[in-house]
Each structure stands twice: as C-alpha cells, then as structure tokens.
Amino acid sequence: MGKIRVAIIGVGNCASSLIQGISYYRNAKEGTLIPGIMHTRLGGYRIGDIEFTFGIDIDKNKVGKDLASAIYTKPNNTFKFCEVPRLGVPVVRGMTHDGLGYYLSQIIQKAPGPTADIVRLLRETKTDVVINYLPVGSEEATKWYVEQVLTARCAFINCIPVFIASQKYWQKRFIEKGMPVMGDDIKSQVGATILHRILVNLFNDRGVRLDRTSQLNVGGNTDFLNMLERTRLASKKISKTQARYRRRQHSHRTVRLRRLAHRPEVGVYTPRGQDVRRRTPERRVETRSLGFTELGRGRDRRDPLRQTGA
Ligand SMILES: NC(=O)c1ccc[n+]([C@@H]2O[C@H](COP(=O)([O-])OP(=O)(O)OC[C@H]3O[C@@H](n4cnc5c(N)ncnc54)[C@H](O)[C@@H]3O)[C@@H](O)[C@H]2O)c1
Known about the structure:
By secondary structure, the protein is of the alpha/beta class.
C-alpha cells in the first residue's frame, strides 16, 4: 500500500490531537489491544501510512511554522501527550472569510501577506485528503476551501458542522470529480454526544418514556470561546440534535423524545490562562412537538451582535 497524504485546514486543538495521535501510535503493533485505538489497520492502511503535506491557518503565530511546532502554539491548549518531531512541512496562509468570529478575532491576529495558492500546493504535494477543522460557523470559508479541494481533485473530510457531505449539491460536485467526501461534523471518541446517545438508548431499551433531553457542554478552549457567538451556532444545533435523534429512529418502542437544541454552555477562554466560568443557564422555552427548543429568554448580554441588533 502507498501512503495517505493529508493536508489540514485549521491548525487548532483538533489538529494537534490528530497529529500527536498519529505520531504516538505510528508504530502500534497489530493484533494487540492498544488503549485509545479502535483499528491499527483499516482498508489495508496502517497508522504509520498517514503523512502530512501542509497545514493551513490564518493565525500570525502559526503561519510559517513547521506543522509540528504550530500545533503547540497558543491559543491551542490540547494536552501534550507526544513530542511530535519536526515534520518538515509548513503551515501556509489561508483565506480568512468568516473563519474568525467576534471572540476569536480578539485573541488571534491575522498573519500578514497574501493567501497561498492552495490548489497549486495541493497538487504539488500530491495531497490525497484534506481535513477541515475550521471554527464552527465558518460557512463561507469552508465553501471556499471546498472549491480549492475540488479543483485539485482531493478527497475531503469535513469535521465541522457546515453542511457539505450531507448536501446533494456538494455530493454531486464530488461525484463529478470522482472523489470521496465525508462528514459532516466529527464526534469525539468518548465525548458528551456519544455518552448522551447511549443514555437515550438505555432509557429506550428499558421502556422508559423520555420526555426531554438536553446536553450541556462545558469547555475551556477556543472552540467554546467561538461558540459564545450564538449566531454561528445554527448548523451546530442541527448537527448535534441529529446525532441524538438518529438513535431514536431505529427504536422499536414508542418513545417521545423531544429534540432539544445543543447548548454549548460556556467555557470562556481568556488569554491569561484557562479560566472556565459557567454562566447562569438561560431559561428554556420548550415546545411539545418534535423540533428545536427555543432558547434565549434570558438575554445573552455578552453577545455583541444582539446588542447592536445585527
Ligand atoms: N473537539 C471535538 O471533539 C469536536 C467535535 C466535533 C466538531 N469539532 C469541530 O472541529 C473544529 C475544530 O475544533 P478545534 O477545537 O480544533 O478549534 P480551534 O479553535 O482550536 O482551531 C481552529 C483553527 O482554525 C484556524 N482558522 C480560523 N479561520 C481560519 C481560516 N479561514 N483558514 C484557516 N484556518 C483558520 C484558527 O486560527 C485555529 O487555529 C470546530 O469547528 C469544532 O467545533 C470538534
């Protein structure tokens, strides 16, 4: 088998976990139980067959660095469990568009200089797969990158809740190019969403009628800081709700499960360090039918867009 050559859009915390993990498990022995790894070989490929070609970011502290050192650059704060050796591949300047929201733009400074020629780089580095780890709400930026990926004829894995792989329009575009597309949105290996889904399943199996369910996520990284901007969350709510609701559709029993909107309650990152503060939960207005819960009777006073009425 050959190598799988991968480029990453958004060299943040997820990219750090992925790159550290691949380095850590690169020589994992096959046929043994390895904590944290489901498969050492998939479709004939081993973990060590994954190679990185370049990263794309817009943060001035990351652009121009070797990918291996950019993943440890603040505001990234992923736990460092592996010293990744120099990869010899750069982080290049991407296209900002709507990648930086109100909160992220207060702690991230854009790198100077023009946007790199992404299509040319993808071709020259013989990149097979592009992974999208942009911040939630990066609709325009994601679509811009998808166009570059299509032109360069690469596969695309969309790890964020901007709807690409699930949309007929984009599916058709990838089929026309003969390239695969996967997504949308990833789920942590053992995170809140899978735990929630298992609990819903448990109630279902035990014949307990579930009237309401909601998920409260608390975190302290830039992903959570970005999600304070509620206007960026529309697609995240849909994605999270579907993840839990899908399980119910396979149910044999009649269970009334009201889909409630995902509420990323709030880990606030401050440049002074990790400081997770919980906000007073907003009151929820719940409907009896299947559908999204309306949020926000308690106004979010820190949301600048609401303040200006935008
Ligand atoms: N951690 C999880 O378990 C999980 C689960 C599901 C989805 N996700 C999604 O994955 C995405 C990445 O999460 P993260 O924790 O790595 O976020 P992060 O904030 O740590 O990283 C985002 C990176 O994108 C960069 N960026 C912003 N605009 C850009 C642009 N226009 N072009 C190139 N780079 C740009 C930022 O500078 C930053 O380095 C988020 O959308 C998150 O919601 C994460």
